[in-house]
Amino acid sequence: MLARVVAQELNDNAGFQIVIENRPGAGSNIAAKAVASAAPDGANLLFTGNSYAINQTIYRNPGYATADLRAVAIAALDSQGLAVNAANPARTLADFVAAAKDKPPSFGFGGSSSRINRRICAQGDGEDRSHGGAVPERRAGAQCAARQPRRYHRRADRRTGAAGATGCIARAGGERQQAFGGRFPMCRCCVKPGSLASKSTVGSGILAPAATPDDICLKINSAVNAAVGKPAVNERLRSLGYEPHAMPLTGTAPFLTNSIETWRKMILATGMAIN
């Protein structure tokens, strides 16, 4: 949805002709490989979130090398959160932990980053926790939480809180983003300052084949920055749970490198199996 909002603005007001093609599979590695092997002319781009950074560690061979792609633009930031059904009495993390001691809950996950964050927190690098069972969600986790009062969802995103069905009671990530604070004013940071989990804010943006010329990348970067800075687009992204985030081209490569390294440390700290 984020990619479509940005693409629509670029099509309507920046002279671009962008067509979104979903390439699901292998944790987005199929899409990344397709772009990595494409001609470096700006015609094929990868819009991705945390999956690209995570995949560099959890896959021994994702099908491409990090040197095959270059960061071009960061459009938005996204944080992780713990959401509960509105019928559940827990309104703070302390409420959640106290209830979990009496009856351990099960968790629903919205992706690899959610599983990684929970394992980090369960090891004491983040919030206190219960020892409930963990089950991956095959459908939207927040929607599942909305139906099941004893279900907890480890990622509060654009779906969470729809029609008051669920509420976020805790979040990871160091920054208190407006998108989170506006929708969930009682949502508190649940991780220790400086911990690995506190650095797990997700950046979503655009990558291009590594040999794509600087002038093409600069044009795309400038257009994306202008798009996410427009009030209407800004408001739309925040309504979806994202924090608009313009970044100059010179900052995108260090940002991506830091994201890969942060997730690498978190994954290795959890002892998760490498595929």
Percent of residues in beta strands? 15-25%
**Fraction of helical residues:** 40-55%
Our Rg estimate from Cα atoms comes to: 19 Å
Please mark out the parts with pLDDT under 50 across 5 or more consecutive residues, or reply none. 125-164
Broad shape: globular
One letter per element, helices H and strands E, the order comes to: HHEHEEHEHEHEEHEEHHEH
- Structural class comes to alpha/beta
How far is the first residue's CA from the last residue's CA? 28 Å
Instruction: Order the strands across the largest sheet as they lie in space.
Output: 5-4-6-3-7-8
Number of strands: 10
Mean pLDDT: 75
**What's the total helix number?**
10
Characterise this structure.
The protein has about 280 residues and is α/β, with parallel strands linked by helices. Helices cover about 40% and strands about 15% of the residues. The strands form 2 sheets. Strands 5-4-6-3-7-8 form a 6-stranded mixed β-sheet. The chain has a 4-stranded antiparallel β-sheet with strand order 1-9-2-10, sandwiched between helices. Helix 5 links the parallel strand 4 (about 105-110) and strand 5 (about 135). The radius of gyration is 19 Å and the shape is globular. Mean pLDDT is about 75; it is low at about 125-165.
